[in-house]
Design goal:
This protein is an alpha+beta fold. It contains ten helices and eight strands. It has a five-stranded antiparallel sheet. The chain has a three-stranded antiparallel sheet with strand order 4-3-6, with no helix packed on it. The protein is globular.
Length: about 290
């Protein structure tokens, strides 16, 4: 996934995407917080990272698995750039719904989202190697076009999801040190609650009870974004969700906090890579 540049909404152009990568692979993570219109599973095979969402943060080591829900902003901070082996699986909510059964909801790892802690589990070595093996096969079949590849893709995805969901249901990692600085968490929470309103630095100073420059610096350190960039990115993410839910581009513009459609359209295209109208049409045509 190319998360570089100004784009903070990273389009996943498939219902399912799986990447099994080592540090030798092209470096693909972004310093900046970004989001997707799909769920993401992060499985750490080797190394140590800090994974942050807009609500919380935790340290991850080999065997740790985190579940990042759709539209939630997230970023990774790598301790050792020479050691970062991972599996990244992106899957749409519709795929999870179709793959679920009355006895097992494969969205359980993502919903309801706990804004205090990331949903996570820890895999023992044998479990991790099994998931890695299935993920390699999933990645292979996603890139193939032979007659049985679609069936195998479905089979390996379900194997992975069932095992991870069962582990999460039976043994979730519910408590760990939250490494998100309280000031940043409080700032993100305020922005989330007042996203469509006029959020100024002076307003944040009054509400957060800290110097504006210090707030900005703290947010930038975690997210890689200025306050204004973060607010705009959050509004664009909301607009994406509204368009996918069937709202018109004009409705999405004003409902997500923009006051000028021309400015909204330009900003949207710059961050998403397509116009609001194109996003609306692609959503109508299926994902």
């Amino acid at each position: 996934m190319n998360c570089k540049g100004y784009k903070k909404y990273t389009a996943i152009n498939a219902d399912i995407q799986c990447e099994v990568k080592s540090i030798d692979a092209p470096f693909d993570y972004s310093d900046d917080m970004h989001n997707h219109a799909c769920h993401e599973i992060v499985i750490l095979l080797d190394g140590d990272i800090r994974l942050y969402t807009e609500y919380s943060g935790r340290e991850m080591k080999r065997g740790d698995v985190c579940f990042v829900p759709q539209y939630i902003f997230h970023t990774a901070d790598i301790y050792n750039p020479d050691k970062y082996d991972r599996v990244i699986i992106n899957v749409t909510d519709d795929v999870l719904k179709r793959a679920s059964s009355p006895k097992m909801d494969l969205r359980a790892c993502f919903e309801p989202y706990n804004d205090t802690y990331l949903h996570s589990i820890h895999l023992e070595d044998d479990e991790l190697e099994e998931i890695k093996k299935y993920s390699i096969e999933l990645q292979k079949n996603l890139s193939r076009s032979n007659p049985g590849s679609g069936i195998l893709t479905d089979a390996y995805l379900k194997l992975i999801l069932v095992k991870l969901t069962s582990k999460y249901t039976d043994d979730p990692v519910e408590h760990y040190p939250n490494i998100m600085p309280p000031l940043v968490s409080k700032t993100f929470e305020f922005i989330d609650k007042h996203l469509t309103e006029d959020i100024t630095l002076s307003l944040l100073e009054r509400e957060i009870h800290h110097n504006g420059t210090y707030i900005s610096r703290s947010v930038k350190k975690i997210s890689g974004l200025s306050l204004q960039q973060y607010i705009i990115a959050k509004r664009i993410a909301l607009a994406c969700r509204l368009l996918r839910e069937g709202y018109t581009p004009s409705d999405a513009c004003f409902m997500s906090g923009f006051n000028n459609y021309s400015n909204f359209s330009r900003t949207f295209a710059k961050q998403v890579g397509k116009s609001p109208k194109q996003m609306q049409m692609s959503s109508r045509g299926g994902k």
